[in-house]
Design goal:
Largest sheet: 4 strands, antiparallel
CATH topology of the largest domain: Ribosomal Protein S5, domain 2
Number of helices: 3
Distance between the termini: 17 Å
Radius of gyration: 19 Å
Low-confidence stretches: none
Strand content: 35-45%
CATH class of the largest domain: Alpha Beta
Number of strands: 10
Number of domains: 2
Mean pLDDT: 86
Order of helices and strands: EEEEEHEEEEHEH
Helix content: 10-25%
Strand order of the largest sheet: 3-4-5-6
Structural class: alpha+beta
Length: 170
């Protein structure tokens, strides 16, 4: 997590200090997509990007663009608009979650301190960017990275703390 401090001075010489949180981004999937048109083939790029501040806020988006950088930037700005706050408890998740999304089955289990993130593929990147330090996860049934990311987000969205709300507790 990178924090920038921006200072401004008003007319009354009062200094206003703002902290701007920046999100780290990780490209999960990058694909070249072709479409057959009347004059030939049109190539575009599809990017699936996950962003997170490693403090409980994460987001993902899929976007297409004529260039790789355009697709990644579009996906990152879309992801910032759809942020999810993850419920955490003592550097792990509050309870076990089993979720099925299309063909992807995701199992997330809390782990003791010192375990680290034991997960594979796209689920590891999502959990690392969300700031969960100790968790065990298993992907069953699907190799599709985008569906695995969506299933992980739905599983993290369904997490609840003991008091019933979705607030971050540490």
């Amino acid at each position: 997590m990178v924090k920038k401090t921006v200072s401004q001075q008003n007319d009354n010489s009062i200094e206003v200090v703002k902290t701007v949180e920046e999100f780290e981004q990780k490209i999960i999937d990058l694909a070249r997509v072709t479409r057959v048109m009347a004059g030939g083939k049109r190539m575009r790029f599809r990017a699936c990007v996950v962003i997170g501040n490693k403090n409980g806020q994460i987001g993902y988006a899929i976007a297409k663009g004529a260039d790789v950088t355009l697709a990644v930037n579009k996906a990152a700005t879309k992801a910032k608009k759809n942020l999810l706050t993850v419920a955490r408890y003592k550097e792990t998740i509050p309870h076990e979650v089993r979720l099925k999304y299309k063909a992807a089955n995701i199992i997330l289990k809390p782990a003791p301190i010192g375990t680290g993130i034991k997960a594979g593929g796209a689920v590891r990147d999502v959990l690392a960017l969300s700031g969960i330090a100790n968790v065990v996860a298993k992907i069953i049934g699907s190799n599709n990275k985008i569906n695995n990311v969506k299933a992980t987000f739905l599983a993290l969205q369904s997490l609840q703390t003991q008091s019933g709300n979705r607030q971050i507790t540490e």
